[in-house]
Amino acid sequence: MAWTCINCEASNDYNASTCEVCGMERYFSISEVNDLLKMQELEPTEIKKIQTNFKRASTENKNLRQKNKELSQRMNDLESFHTKHKPEMQRLEKQVAHLHLWNKRWKIAVVLSGLTILFFLLAKITVTIQF
Ligand SMILES: [Zn+2]
């Protein structure tokens, strides 16, 4: 009897413990676990313990899969948002680069005018000394 992967829904060989397509661990249903436990000839209390643990793990697994689904959905949303706004982002990046360039030019201009003022001041002093 084949089993169906809970992740990708591929049909796998009964003896395979992981999915042949995506590598996901085989998922046992509670009835399958109960059948397996019956064959093990365990104490009823031990069976109960295993069943409880299994149920807890199943619930956790279910919750995680749900979360995974939600996160994948959000990732997709973000990706499409990014794709949609890519031209806008590139335009803004260009503007920022442009501003950086002007900022640099402005700094150079400030330094140059400072030097010019200094030069004139020195020239004036020289002139004053000469005359
Ligand atoms: Zn799979």
Describe it for me?
The protein is mainly alpha-helical and 131 residues long. The protein has a domain of 40 residues. 73% of the residues lie in helices and 3% in strands. The protein is built from three helices and two strands. It has a two-stranded antiparallel ribbon with strand order 1-2. α1 runs antiparallel to α2. The longest helix has 45 residues. It starts with a strand and ends with a helix. Zinc ion (ZN) binds next to loops.
At a glance:
The protein has helices at residues 30-39, 44-84, 86-130, and strands at residues 3-4, 11-12. The chain has 131 residues and is mainly alpha-helical.
Largest sheet: 2 strands, antiparallel
User: Count of helices?
Assistant: 3
Present as ligands are: zinc ion
Residues in helices, as a percent range: over 70%
Q: SSE order in H/E notation?
A: EEHHH
User: Helix/strand/pairing class, anyone?
Assistant: mainly alpha
Radius of gyration: 36 Å
Shape: rod-shaped
How many β-strand runs?
2
Q: Beta-sheet strand percentage?
A: under 5%
How is the quaternary structure best described? single chain
Through-space gap between termini: 112 Å
Strand order of the largest sheet: 1-2
The parts where pLDDT drops under 50 for at least 5 residues are none
Calculate the mean pLDDT score and round it. 87
